[in-house]
Known about the structure:
The protein is mainly α. Helices cover 69% and strands 4% of the residues. The protein folds into two domains: 22-126; 150-283, no CATH class.
Amino acid sequence: MKTRAKSAFIMTPLLVIIFLGGYCLVVGVIALTFLALHEFSAAFGDKKPSRWALWASVCLLYACYFLQLFHTFAYLPLWLFISLVLCFLSMFSMKKTDLGQGMATILGVVYIIFLPFHLVLVDNAYTAPFNIAGGLGFSGVFNISGLHTYVWIIVLAAFGADIFAYFTGKLLGSRPLCPSISPKKTVEGSVGGVLGALLLCGLFSYFFLPDGFVDCLIIGVLGGVVSQLGDLSASVMKRRIGIKDWGTLIPGHGGVLDRVDSILFTAPLVYYFLMIKESLAIL
């Protein structure tokens, strides 16, 4: 019980950061990225990915963000291209770096830096922030996202699938889903996870995002599937590396990366789903 209480205490700031949104969310995602990079790098032991290339990639991405270069989506592929160039440059030291470390560096750029940035993109593009100090003459200064943001849908789809899959698997699970990757996961649990994500996203949308109710139902189903793929993908990597958890920061759950691995896949899904839908509506 104490372990679960500690875990809840550590995860509470995440909910506050999502509620505040805006620059608070950006700072939170940056902190999460650096913590996840630390865990990711440490997992490789002596064959660590290039830290300077990863840090340079993070700094470049958020420097571009704060300079407002990402108002057009075209700059994001440019950042990715430059980051990949840095990854290959890190392999030029033939005696110090092998191909495996170079590939781990590229994986770090895509998996640890690029994917969580979609939380920021969703909050920027699909949130109508409200001002809490407009009456005091500070209009535009204290804008927060509140509950009317699709970032909540990302979290609900990911965590909802995780929680419902766990309890459904405990109660009804009998057929293994991927025994070679995660022996405890079951087909029944997986289905329960998708239904749980659908339920939570639907309920949240009904009260706080009524205009996007159908979209949230679709995201609930797709997110329930994709979040489990994210969890299984992380399990595959950990098994290949030979570790049980990425870290120990969150009692009972491992590290930060262990807790957000499903979000890393769900955030891009939500962003690109909404972006494609918006593009088709314009056409």
